[in-house]
Amino acid sequence: MEANKHKEPFVRIVKRDRIPLWIALLIRLAAILLSLVVCALLIYLITHSNPIQVYRSMVDGAVGTGRRTWNTLRDTMILLAIALAITPAFKMRFWNIGAEGQILVGGIATAAVMRCCGDSLPTALLFLAMIAASLAAGLIWGLIPAVFKAHWNTNETLFTLMMNYIAIQLTAFFSIVWEAKKGSGTIGTINQKTQAGWISTSFLSDIFGNFNYSINLIIVLSITVAMFIYLKYTKHGYEIAVVGNSENTARYAGINVKRAIMRTVALSGAICGFTGFLLVSGSSHTISTSTAGGRGFTAIIVSWLAKFNPFVMILISFFLVFMGNGATQIASEFQLNESASEVIIGIILFFILGSEFFINFRLIFGKHGKEAR
Amino acid sequence: MKFTKTLAVVAMTAAMAVGSALAAGAAEPVDTADLKVGFIFVGDEQEGYTYAHMLGRDGMIEALGLSEDQVISKYNIPEDESCYDAAVDLAEQGCQIIFANSFGHEDYMIQAASEYPEVQFCHATGYQAASSELENMHNYFTSVYESRYVSGVVAGLKLAELYGEDTDAKIGYVGAYSYAEVKSGFTAFYLGVRSVCPNVTMEVKYTGSWADQALEKETAEALIADGCVLISQHADTTGAASACEANEVYDVGYNVSMLDAAPNYALTSASIKWAPYYTYAVESIINGEAIDTDWCQGYADGAVWITDLGSAVAEGTEEAVEAAWASILDGSLHVFDTSTWTVDGETITTTATDELADTYYGVEYINEDGYFMESELASAPAFAFVIDGITELNQVY
User: Fold this and answer.
1) Is B397 in Cβ contact with A179 (below 8 Å)?
2) Fold of B18-143+274-301
3) With a cut of 0.85, is the ipTM above it?
4) Fold annotation for B144-270+304-392
5) Which of A181, A198, A212, A213 should one mutate to test binding to chain B, selecting the residue with the greatest count of B CBs within 10 A?
6) Is the pLDDT assigned to residue B12 strictly greater than 60?
7) CA B269 to CA B148: how far, in whole Å?
8) Is the CB of B108 inside 8 Å of chain A's CB atoms?
9) What is the per-residue pLDDT across B125-145, written as a single tens digit (0 to 9) for each?
10) How many domains does chain A have?
C-alpha cells in the first residue's frame, strides 16, 4: 500500500468547476497566437518566404478590396446561416449531419422555380415562389429522418447522412435534365440574359457601393437575431433545451418529445433549404453537386465551437471564411499550393479545438496537487 | 425543351455567321511594361490538364519577355461563382486580359465580361463566345484530335508488330465523361489505330471524373481484365499508365509523357501546347489588335504534338509519325473523313437532321469534301458519334 501511494501519476487531469470568462477568452487568444507562430515557423521552414508577408497577403486576400470584403461577407453569411439552421437540432441532441442535402434540395427547388417561372411571374411573386419552394424542400428533407427518429427511434446520424447522398444524386440528375449543352452535365447560369430570380442589390448601391451582397447580409443577420430569441426566450426554445438535456425529464415535464423533435428538425431543414435559395438566387445562379461544398459539415464546427450562441457564430464563421479566402490568395501570390493553405487552416483549428480542453480541464502535476480542486 | 432547342439553333447559326471573321473591335495598343495578365485554373501543377496550360503560360511569358509579377494566376478555382469572383478580382487588379481553362467557367466569364467591357476574357473549351455577342469574350481550343490520331498511328504500329496488321485485337480507352470532347478524342485515336490495323475494336469506359488517379487505374485494370491489349485515355492522371506498367500492357497517354509512370510500356502521349494561343492573345493586346472570337489551331501552328516516343515503339514509328503529320499538314488527310467510319453500318452524310438535333442543333458539320468539320465552326470539339468498332461500356455525365 505504501508503495502504491508513491506511484501517483505524474500528471492528473481534473475537470474545472467554473472558469472566469476573461480567462477562457485569454486561453483562446493564446491558442490562436500560438497557432499563428507554429504556422509561421512551418511557412518559413518549407518555403523560406517571410511569414509576416504571407499573413499580410492573407488579410489582403480576404478584405483587401471592397469586392473581396463583400465576397468574404457573403461566404460568412452562408456558413452562418447553415450553422444557425443546424443549431436547434444539435441543441436538442438530434445529430443532423444532413445539412448538405437539405441545402441542395432547397437549391434544386429554387432553380426549378427560376427556370420554369422566370419569364412568366412578376418579380415579387417569383421570389415568393422560390422562397416557399426552397423552405418546403428543405423542410421535407429534414422531416423524413425526424419522423423516423420520433416514431421508430432510428439512428438520425446515419439517416441524415444517407439523405445527403440521395440529394447529391438528385442534383446530378437535374444537372443532366437541365444541362446547358448536351453531354456537359452542367446547368450553367440560370436566366443569364434576363437575370430573373437573381437577388439584385443595385437599388442599395448608394449605401453599399455598386457591388454588394447586402441583402444576403441583412437576411442572415435577421435570422441570427431571430434564432437567438427563439432559443432563449420562447417556449419552443425551452423545450429544445430540456429535450436536449434529458428526454425523460422532458417527458415528465409534459413535453411532447415526438412533436418537439419533428418540429425542430423541420425548422432546421427549412432554414438549410432557405440557404440553398440564398446560394442559388443570391450568388451562384446555378446548382451543381458542389453547391453546398462541405459547408453543411463545417457549420457543425461553427455551431459547436460557439456553444450554440448565434452571436458567437458570426465571429467563428467570419474567422473560418477569412482564413479560407486569405489562403486562396497565398496560393496565388507565393506559388504555394492550395494544400499549403489547408495545412495552415488545419493547424489553427487544431489549436482552437485543443484550447477547449484547457478551458474545461486543468492539469495537476506531481503529488502536490493531490488535494487541488 | 422546344424553346431551348430553337434558341440553341439560333445561337449556333449566329456563331457560324459571325465566326472569327468578325472578332472583337480593336483597342488601343498597350505598352508591354503596363501589361497585366490573369489566369484562372481549375487545378494546379498536380493535374496534367492544368499543368499543360501552366507550361503554355510560361512559354508566353518567355516569348513576350514579361516579368513574373505581370502575370497573376489563381489555382484550383471550381466551376461556380468562385470563377466570377476570381475573374472580377483579376480585372480589378488591372489585368487587360484574363484566361480561364475549364468548361464550367464559361458562364461566369461571360458574366464578368459583360461587367468589364474594356477587359478581354478568353475561355478554353467553351462554345458561347459568339452567341454571347460580347466583343470582349473569346473561346479557344486546339485541334487536339490531330495529335490523338497520330498517337493512334503509334499504337496501331505497335499492335501490328505484336499481332500482325490483320489482328482483331481489342484495345481499351479510359474516358472522363460521355461528352463530345472525349468522344471526339477517342474516335480520332481509334481512327489512327485503324489506319494501320483495320480490324481492331475498342472498348471505352468512363470514370466520371477529369482527374482521379485511383479510379483511372482501376478502370484501366478492368479494361485489361476484359482482354484489352493496349490502353489509352482521356483523363488527367497517370493512373492508367501505372496500371499498364504493372500488367505489362502498352499505353498511350494524354497531355504529359507517361514514361515516368510506365517506362517500359508507354509509347507516347497526345498533347496540347497552349503557348501559341497565349502568346497570340497577349500579343494582340500589346498591338491593340482584335482577338479571334473562336480560335482553334493544330499541328500547323505548333499547338498540338505528341510527346517523345518511348523505347517500346515499333520499328519505323518515327517515319510513320512524320508521314501522318505531313498528310495532315498538306490537307490530304482529314481525321474525320466519313469514308473511313460508319455508324450502325451506315455512312453519315449529314448532321442537320431531326434525329441528331439534340446533339448538333440542326447544324451541318459534314462538308462537300465528305469530312466532319471538327473545330472549324466553333473552337470546342463537337464530334459525338460512337462509330462502329467502338463499344461504350458505361455512360457517365
Assistant:
1) yes
2) Rossmann fold (3.40.50)
3) no
4) Rossmann fold (3.40.50)
5) A181
6) no
7) 8
8) yes
9) 888 898 888 999 999 999 999
10) 1
